[in-house]
Amino acid sequence: MTIKAFPAVIALMAGLGLIAAPAPAQAEALMADGTYHYADDDGDTGTWTIRTTCAPHCVAHVTTASGRSFDARLENGRFVSFRLIPDGLECPTYLASEVVLGGGTHPVLVTQWWDPITLSGEVEFSHSAPPCALDDQHDRFTLTRIG
What we know:
This protein is mainly β. It has one domain: Lipocalin, CATH 2.40.128. 12% of the residues lie in helices and 52% in strands. The chain has 2 helices and 10 strands, in the order ααββββββββββ. The protein has helices at 2-15, 25-28; strands at residues 34-40, 45-54, 58-64, 69-75, 78-90, 93-96, 99-102, 105-114, 120-126, 138-145. It has an 8-stranded antiparallel β-barrel. The chain has a two-stranded antiparallel sheet with strand order 6-7. The relative contact order is 0.17.
């Protein structure tokens, strides 16, 4: 009887969350922590350092070469980030009838995602009515591991 009771106790403990479950298979297929070269379809490049944690959800913690950082959560097999860059758009000043208009920096909402297997993704930029406009509101990019 003890032999039959032991599996039942293990099943009960696992059901109550008293036994740690192995990491999900999804976490095993994630990109490795390290340094990556970022290149988008407009020719912009950069360096990202990525550290991934998976407790309780998988999150890529990204730091860029410019010192900015953000987190991207793994959702449906891709890392996704929504963030506001307060000074993401710089508008030039211009002169209109001896009055200087425009200028300054303005916030930009960034929605970005990438596949941890193919290391390719997309980014969308949006803003709310600054005195100038974004030239390009969508980019595709790739990441290449360099370290």
